[in-house]
Task: structure prediction
Amino acid sequence: MSLDARSRARLKGVHPRLAAVTERAAEITPVGFIVTEGLRTRARQAALVKAGASRTLNSRHLTGHAIDVAAVVDGKVRWDWPLYPRIADAFRRAAAEQGTALIWGGDWPRLRDGPHFELDRKAFP
Ligand SMILES: [Zn+2]
Result:
C-alpha cells in the first residue's frame, strides 16, 4: 500500500520527518489509513477548542509537528478503536527504522487520541 494523493496533499506543511514516517507506515501497515489533517491554522484550532474537540491552543498541528489519520477498511473510513493500535504499530516501526522520535496519541493516559501522531517535543521542539 502507499499513501493516496489526498493524504499526500494533506502532508503539505508537515515536518518532513513526520511526512517520511507517514509514507513508510502506509507501506507496511496491515490496516489502510488516510491522512485527515496535518497543518492547522490558529483560527481552526480555536474553533476546535471552542467546540470541545481539542483542549489546547498549543497544538502540535499548528507547527506541522502532528497529523491525524483515519482507518480505511474496504474503502470506508472506520473509527473502531481496535484498528488504531495496528496502525500505530506500523508508525512505531517506521519511526524506529528512520530514527524519528514519535508519539502516538493513543498512548496518552488521559484523552486518548487514537488517530493522532506527533513528533516528540524533546527531539523536535
Ligand atoms: Zn491530532
Residues 83-98 form the longest helix (16 residues). The CA atoms of residues 21 and 97 lie 9 Å apart. The pocket of zinc ion is lined by residues 61, 66, 68, 116 (CB under 6 Å). Helices lie at 5-10, 16-28, 42-51, 83-98.
